[in-house]
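In the design runs reported in the main text, the only information available to the sequence generator was the tokenized backbone. The following block is the verbatim input for one such run; it is reproduced so that readers can re-run the procedure and compare outputs position by position.
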């Protein structure tokens, strides 16, 4: 038995190499399209599987489940839902300019509806797919074994149709992503033709034909001047807007009508409408009274009703500014080129496409030339044989073995043949048919000897000679090859042409200058965590004890911010104008619905207004006994949610308080009934992200359970638990230094103990 050999591998090197291998597998084999046919492997396999099922555009539909089954079983052994979703996307005319799959049944909608299950829907290829798959049988591309070696699949499609630019693509790999917007098919083809005419053409020259992206949902691109950089570098930003018009609704009213939505929300129109409704609920669109979706088969139609006398243009400006009716798209022309991920320019994409077409056509016409020459050879032999058919028949009748006949016809030997005359024998010695011609003569049926049949052979021979001349002419030079590619492109353009849907211009960014009136308001939060904003007048009119029922009452203004601190050391803030304004008798809204960064279980310790923090100081005390004072401006932050302080593991905030002039001392009680009182002058003034200094010396598992800020002239403290309370005189609590153990008091241990 051979000895086992121990192979030492460096763990770090192995992990690095394995991760690189995994990354490249995802990039090349899953997420990023190949620059030549513009397809990811999954898309390519779906189209090829449908072609193998003979689902051409002029054939019948087939169940989607059957197509997905063939793709999974033969080419792409991944999830069936992923394959079906990919096929569905290739059929959606609101996602792609020229769909490659024609769906029959529910294949989803622009609203965001999902496609029906694959067992209910049917599909076949479109005419554009014909241009993607055509000539696969003419040795145009290399084939490879599928995952189990049972069948062959193409490494690439011939792809005369410039799918990458026309339909665009999106993909997220490991550490990189691609976003190529769709373009108008006629413009793309004209740009390719221009490149074929002049390979030195620059980006500016190409942009005379390709004006910019052309989305299936239409809309407007409003930063035209930025397009040159996008096409020059392969990276950029598009500002896209909905198409919005103003309609007369009668009685002096106007309606704002959205007829085209941004491509970023294609397949999610309902979410877009929800954003408009959300803006209205937050009172960010006071000029509007209602929004409704009147879309139909004829197209998108979202109507926003405008109040009588309100400015409709202002409504449009707010919709662009505050909703995704104006959105951004950041294209990145990342593709797989020669098995490497690269970001290419527009010219780079077109160059790669043209080089692919040159190779495809060169292979195709070399293949056709070879086939035609072989056919000519056979037809030449049949014509020659027709003139000496009597001799051939004599050879056949005078032979006993087929091998002797073949040798005789090919001029190799006349042995084994009995001729009727010396003349026939002499003529036979001059025969020089090729092996291919010989086989064709011997396979020829007698009906070919009829005059009309022979005329067909002669006609076929003439046609083959013309084909050979054509193929040789196409292959004679690069210019001839380019001319042929151009002719095919222009023919395809007639089949697939479509008018431009997306307008392109330069528009300034929307700036809304709104005169905001500052008024005094109250933020009220009850014990059930319902929050509301109430104006000063409502509070003035209410009875004196009205505010006592609320857990938090913050007096502020409508233009300020509400600041909250929670037990886990988090800082949250929200603009007062973003909190629903209510009447005093209204319940309000749950605080975690208004402030999304708050969890339902968040325990709020302190709440104040941004107006009060500039000149203030905040005291922080944790259960594990860390204490510090932080200047208020430390919390004048732009972020809505961040850390208010740094905590040790498993620690929590016990007390957060805004210090006043009366606060001079602090007293705290531990879970072991130790009481410590010291001056606030002993507490360090630190930064927001500091842990703090030691407040009280604690034993193992001992924590601080309650504390209270004091004026040094206080008379007594009251400690209360659930069932009892204790009063402690000032003189019974000595003033000590921070970080000491404190004095012991006699009281039952109770976690609910608190100072009154």
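Verbatim output:
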């Amino acid at each position: 038995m051979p000895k086992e050999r121990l192979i030492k591998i460096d763990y770090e090197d192995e992990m690095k190499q394995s991760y690189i291998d995994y990354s490249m597998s995802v990039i090349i084999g899953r997420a990023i399209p190949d620059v030549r046919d513009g397809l990811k492997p999954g898309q390519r396999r779906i189209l090829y599987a449908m072609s193998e099922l003979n689902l051409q555009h002029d054939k019948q539909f087939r169940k989607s489940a059957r197509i997905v089954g063939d793709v999974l079983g033969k080419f792409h052994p991944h999830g069936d839902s992923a394959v079906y979703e990919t096929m569905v996307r290739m059929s959606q005319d609101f996602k792609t300019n020229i769909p490659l799959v024609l769906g029959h049944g529910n294949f989803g909608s622009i609203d965001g509806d999902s496609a029906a299950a694959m067992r209910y829907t049917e599909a076949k290829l479109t005419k554009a797919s014909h241009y993607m798959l055509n000539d696969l049988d003419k040795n145009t591309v290399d084939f490879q074994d599928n995952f189990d070696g049972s069948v062959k699949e193409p490494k690439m499609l011939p792809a005369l149709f410039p799918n990458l630019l026309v339909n665009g693509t999106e993909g997220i790999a490991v550490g990189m992503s691609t976003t190529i917007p769709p373009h108008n098919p006629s413009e793309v083809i004209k740009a390719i033709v221009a490149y074929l005419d002049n390979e030195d053409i620059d980006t500016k020259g190409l942009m005379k034909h390709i004006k910019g992206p052309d989305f299936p949902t239409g809309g407007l691109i409003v930063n035209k001047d930025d397009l040159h950089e996008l096409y020059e570098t392969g990276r950029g930003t598009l500002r896209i807007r909905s198409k919005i018009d103003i309609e007369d609704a009668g009685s002096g009213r106007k309606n704002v009508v959205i007829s085209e939505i941004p491509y970023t929300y294609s397949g999610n129109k309902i979410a877009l409408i929800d954003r408009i409704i959300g803006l209205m609920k937050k009172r960010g669109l006071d000029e509007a009274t209602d929004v409704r979706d009147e879309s139909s088969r004829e197209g998108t139609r979202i109507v926003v009703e405008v109040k009588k006398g309100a400015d409709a243009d202002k409504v449009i400006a707010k919709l662009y500014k505050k909703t995704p009716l104006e959105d951004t798209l950041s294209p990145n022309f990342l593709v797989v080129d020669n098995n490497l991920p690269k970001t290419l320019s527009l010219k780079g994409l077109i160059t790669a496409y043209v080089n692919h077409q040159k190779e495809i056509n060169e292979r195709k016409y070399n293949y056709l030339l070879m086939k035609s020459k072989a056919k000519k050879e056979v037809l030449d032999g049949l014509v020659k044989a027709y003139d000496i058919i009597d001799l051939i028949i004599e050879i056949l009748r005078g032979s006993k073995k087929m091998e002797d006949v073949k040798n005789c016809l090919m001029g190799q030997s006349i042995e084994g043949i009995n001729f009727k005359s010396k003349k026939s024998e002499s003529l036979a010695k001059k025969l020089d048919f090729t092996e291919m011609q010989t086989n064709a003569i011997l396979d020829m049926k007698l009906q070919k000897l009829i005059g009309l049949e022979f005329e067909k052979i002669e006609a076929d021979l003439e046609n083959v000679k013309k084909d050979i001349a054509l193929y040789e002419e196409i292959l004679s030079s690069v210019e001839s090859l380019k001319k042929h590619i151009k002719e095919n492109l222009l023919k395809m353009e007639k089949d697939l042409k479509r008018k431009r849907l997306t307008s392109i211009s330069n528009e300034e960014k929307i700036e809304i200058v709104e005169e905001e009136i500052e008024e005094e308001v109250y933020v009220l939060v009850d014990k059930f965590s319902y929050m509301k904003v109430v104006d000063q007048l409502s509070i003035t009119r209410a009875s004196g004890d009205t505010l006592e029922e609320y857990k938090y009452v913050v007096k502020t203004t409508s233009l300020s911010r509400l600041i909250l601190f929670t037990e886990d050391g988090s800082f949250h803030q929200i603009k007062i104008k973003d909190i629903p304004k209510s009447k005093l008798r209204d319940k309000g809204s749950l605080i975690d619905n208004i402030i999304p960064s708050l969890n339902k279980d968040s325990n709020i310790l302190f709440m104040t207004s941004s107006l009060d923090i500039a000149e203030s100081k905040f005291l922080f005390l944790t259960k594990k006994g860390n204490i510090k004072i932080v200047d208020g401006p430390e919390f004048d932050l732009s972020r809505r949610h961040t850390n208010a302080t740094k905590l040790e593991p498993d620690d929590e905030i016990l007390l957060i308080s805004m210090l006043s002039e009366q606060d001079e001392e602090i007293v705290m009680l531990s879970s072991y009934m130790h009481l410590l009182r010291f001056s606030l002058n002993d507490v360090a003034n630190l930064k927001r992200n500091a842990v703090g200094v030691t407040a009280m010396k604690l034993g193992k598992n001992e924590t601080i359970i309650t504390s209270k800020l004091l004026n040094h002239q206080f008379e007594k403290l009251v400690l209360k638990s659930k069932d009892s309370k204790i009063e402690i005189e000032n003189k019974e609590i000595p003033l000590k230094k921070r970080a000491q153990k404190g004095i012991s008091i006699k009281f039952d241990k109770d976690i609910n103990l608190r100072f009154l």
